[in-house]
């Protein structure tokens, strides 16, 4: 049996705010968003081989092996570096998909960071972030591992230090299409750009929430439930929402009351991602 390097975390992210500032000529939206990590996510294990083959177990339901962002990230790294090494990858999927928690992007970033180390490629973080951007707008922030305000279409990142509260994240059990929400005629897309939005907590909001709750009743219902316990917001283009708590006990109490039709978890906000901490361990 090959030896596995175990427990590489792929944490979830939350968009503490998501302001949409305009639409570009190419149809993509200019946005400002604050990304923070939480200490809950998927877990990956890697064993290095010398046959150049990339395999992932178990398969992710509904995603073809070669379309999986983990496999795509590993192959991209092989192409870029010219290495002949391969990898057996095991995935413990814990994050709901298509929920705005960035699980697929985080899995891809963890694969880039872990294989760079295990294949001894010595590529810089800048290079890994650039490779990651070709896989998805949210991959670079996971590669860099620092809570950041993103600008542009999400590619310009400025690390920030914000509070690290406890969150109750609720997954209403549906996937929201990012493309559908960005294409919605009623989407708010004219928010003012703020010079340092992290200092204006009272203005933190998610410009997508109105368009989402109008189309997805489950998100509206979950938000109406959670807001009774704590200030609550949606992450990304949904469907997940999160309540912000000053302590773990109150978040756990609300989780215990969660209606059985929804899934949820309690996690702590992290300005430094668990992946960044893991890279410093043997
Ligand atoms: C807005 C965020 C915030 O985290 O939402 P979530 O995906 O996390 O929910 C992300 O940056 C999302 O980035 P990413 O996940 O790469 O977007 P995709 O699924 O590739 O985008 C699907 C479609 O949405 C539109 N789109 C996406 C991003 C953007 N800044 N402007 C857009 O107009 C485009 O039509 C694009 O083809
Ligand atoms: N390893 C992966 N984990 C999750 N989703 C993946 C993965 N690889 C590819 N995908 C695809 O990416 C889509 C978005 O997944 P995810 O990152 O979890 O959601 P979001 O972008 O809403 O946060 C999924 O619906 C799936 O089709």
Word description of this protein:
The protein is 29% helix and 29% strand. By secondary structure, it is an alpha+beta fold. The chain folds into 2 domains: 5-160, Ribosomal Protein S5, domain 2 (2-Layer Sandwich), CATH 3.30.230; 166-270, 2-Layer Sandwich (Alpha-Beta Plaits). Strands 1, 2, 3, 4, 5, 6, 7, 8, 9 and 10 form a 10-stranded mixed sheet that branches. Helix 1 (69-81) runs parallel beside helix 2 (103-118) and helix 2 (103-118) runs antiparallel to helix 3 (125-133). The two termini are 20 Å apart. Adenosine-5'-diphosphate is lined by residues 60, 63, 68-70, 97-105, 107, 236.
Short description:
This protein is α+β, with helices and mostly antiparallel strands and 282 residues long. The protein is 29% helix and 29% strand.
Q: Runs with pLDDT <50, length 5+?
A: none
Mean pLDDT: 96
Query: What is the overall shape?
Result: globular
- The CATH topology of the largest domain is given as Ribosomal Protein S5, domain 2
Top-tier CATH class of the largest domain: Alpha Beta
Tell me the number of helical segments per DSSP (H or I, 4 or more residues long): 9
Tell me the distance between the termini: 20 Å
Roughly how many Å is the radius of gyration?
A: 19 Å
Instruction: Estimate nothing, just give the exact number of structural domains.
Output: 2
Order of helices and strands: EEEHEHHHEEEHHHEEHEH
Domain GHMP kinase N-terminal: 68-145
Keywords: ATP-binding, Isoprene biosynthesis, Kinase, Nucleotide-binding, Transferase
Family: Belongs to the GHMP kinase family. IspE subfamily.
Protein name: 4-diphosphocytidyl-2-C-methyl-D-erythritol kinase
